[in-house]
Here is the input.
Amino acid sequence: MKVLHAAAEVFPLVKTGGLADVLGALPEALIAAGADVRLILPGLPAIVKGVERQQAVCEIGAAFGAGRISLRLGRLPRNGVKVYVVDAPYLYQRPGNPYMALDGSDWSDNLQRFALLGWVAAHLAAGELDARWKPDLLHAHDWHAAMACAYVACHPGATAATVYTVHNLAYQGLFAMGDFHLLGLPSRLMAPDGLEFHGQFSFMKAGLNYAQRVTTVSPNYAREIATAEFGWGLDGLIRGRGTQVSGILNGVDGAVWNPAGDALIAAAYSAQALDGKGRCKAMLQRELGLNVDAKAPLFAVVSRLTSQKGLDLVLAALPALLDGDPAVAAQLAVQGNGDAALEAALTRAAAAHPGRVAVRLVYDEALAHRMIAGADALLVPSRFEPCGLTQLYALRYGTVPVVRAVGGLADTVVDATDEAVQADLATGFMFGAATPAALAHALGRAVSAYRNQKRWRQLMRRGMAQNFSWDEAATQYMALYREALDSDPPGMTR
Ligand code: ADP
Ligand code: GLC
Here is the structure.
């Protein structure tokens, strides 16, 4: 089975969040499961520079405002997976992240930039661009690649099946209806059962409406997005697709996240030999200017700073965490960047609590490893969370997750209720309401568990024994691909 994955990010070349981690690991697992997998990525500076052994596939010419577009085939640096690079300097050769300029504003031509990605993926899937390789199935990720599903659906020569994965329903790729003509798609798609969304048009809907199968990155999030609370106005459409929407849990790339062989952390450790974790903690406390205190429970956050991630709850629950029993002296370390108001509030909190609160407003992969290895507990108090990867990494590193019971967080953490602890199933702490009080209560439970080191080690070991593997996810994707290949395209005859 030949499968083409289309996406905007891939670890380690371009990463703004978990999407990159998924594209950095899933293709290799699918290859191990027997598929012939390639990626297609936009020719962003780090992709053009980092993809190895690039060879010309074809010249595409001019489209979407770009005067010169060419397609090249190369290999990803870490795992050698084959990757097509859409080289369009006019659209992609810019500083900043894939979606925004350095000043934080969206690129004004994101419509053209990501329509091009989907358009090239679809024509590759139609067998028009590479005479040597034609995918049976195109798997598009998030809104950036979603338009591929509409282009395939409208292409009379495209036979590829399509699968669309929603990594985050909140980012939809909405653009002004007046620019619809730029897509080069039939005007009949300009309707509510097509791409139209409240007077605009939506890339997300191209995936949701025109892919044979839709997945999300956890079973619980698949259920949640069919409700008004988590559906961002798309829940009706999602309910309408019924069992064609499903959830497949992300995994952990053990080649990147493994405390026993992580070159980025101060000392290696494992569930059998935990001593190294204490060294990681002391080094992290020193590095961050926290009091070097083995007995102080160190809570960490590694996150994009957006309203999704619930950092405002952490700030509001901070007094309860810090002002409790003075013998406990809990500490908080936050790594992340994004929202300016959150950055400022976190900076103020660190200044107000020297030695107890530290904040690093940076995107830094190595520091993220040191944080997750060195902390005792990881906070993920998200308002919504499609899967969440940091809690999976934390489990692996014996860092006990404290999470809100939403999305993939609820699927991957077992709350330390008395029964769960007695049955030795507990791996972390969970809270329900998105309120500072509910978070503070969960933090209080974590702090008291921490004071009973035997109980805490039991939580650590149970977490470290979890196996969130990409092999399991790949098996499920393979079954879904077979289903998609056997099914009719939805809603439109080509
Ligand atoms: P999301 O994709 O919504 O941001 P995930 O938990 O799925 O959430 O993935 C986040 C990824 O980004 C993880 O690999 C995490 O370690 C990483 N990450 C988040 N913030 C930072 C940061 N400031 N520096 C380095 N890595 C970060
Ligand atoms: C998104 C989600 C996150 C998920 C990641 C990878 O960015 O916010 O929950 O883990 O995609 O699928």
Remarks:
- The chain is about 40% helix and 20% strand.
- The longest helix spans residues 470-486.
- The two ends are 22 Å apart (CA to CA).
- Residues 275-467 form a domain with the Rossmann fold fold (CATH 3.40.50.2000).
